[in-house]
Write a structure and sequence with these properties.
By secondary structure, the protein is α/β, with parallel strands linked by helices. Helix content is 34%, strand content 25%. Strands 6-7-8-3-9-10 form a six-stranded mixed sheet, sandwiched between helices. A four-stranded antiparallel sheet has the order 2-1-4-5, covered by helices on one side.
């Protein structure tokens, strides 16, 4: 199995954010992860990437036990992510932000990184302080920092939030191309109608549990999913 989590539990005080989450991902999949606010989606990404340690359960990536592996070691194995709220080093240039990401994950191929920056349309901003970038540019920087480390598994957290339709299409096409290049993607997104155009499979969280897992056509018609969203995606 490419990636597998088994019975992951994560508590914050008396709150159980993840309650026995088991997820399997195959190499090359593009899987959407959806659910109401507070259902545990971002917490799961943080557990997978090592930001949080689970209270119990296990995780394997490429047959390696990564349950308690530090963040930088997971990155060097090929796990990268974007953040729901862009988190650049605002006083540093766009290029230096990318350099930091590369060094953190074990080194940077500068030629490849420059190609990524150009491909994302950011080459004109390469010396611009990240704090002065627009929202879409900051989201593209998030994506660039993830791509330059050449991930095998990319976890995306609401990268479309706040973007205009043309910007949504642009970002979606970049992610689709990454997936076509065999990068496995787990994509958290509230814009479900945009997500289902690309994802062949959806996983649904509710109250820290997986309540559905399957094709969008089937999952979005399930009673538990409709009730979890109060009919908003029915």
């Amino acid at each position: 199995m490419f990636f597998e989590s088994s019975n992951i539990v994560k508590r914050f005080g008396g709150i159980i954010a993840l309650n026995g989450v088991s997820v399997k991902l195959k190499e090359g999949e593009l899987v959407g992860l959806i659910g109401p606010n507070g259902s545990g989606k971002t917490t799961f990404i943080n557990v997978v990437t090592g930001v949080y340690k689970p209270d119990s359960g296990s995780m394997y990536f490429l047959e390696k036990d990564i349950t308690y592996l530090p963040v930088h070691k997971r990155c060097r194995l090929g796990i990268a992510r974007t953040f729901q709220i862009p988190q650049p080093f605002n006083s540093m240039s766009l290029w230096d932000n990318i350099m930091v990401a590369g060094e953190f994950c074990g080194g940077l191929d500068e030629m490849f990184a420059k190609e990524v920056v150009k491909d994302l349309g950011l080459h004109g901003k390469i010396h611009e302080p990240a704090g002065k970038l627009s929202l879409v540019e900051k989201r593209l920087l998030e994506l660039a920092r993830a791509i330059v480390v050449r991930p095998k598994l990319l976890l995306i957290d609401e990268i479309l939030a706040g973007l205009r339709e043309a910007e949504v299409n642009r970002v979606a096409s970049i992610i689709t191309r990454l997936n076509e290049e065999k990068v496995t993607i787990l994509w958290v997104e509230h814009r479900v109608h945009d997500l289902v155009k690309l994802a062949k499979r959806l996983i649904v969280f509710h109250f820290g549990k997986v309540i559905a897992d399957g094709t969008p056509e089937i999952v979005l018609k399930e009673k538990d999913v409709i009730e979890a969203y109060l009919g908003r995606i029915a």
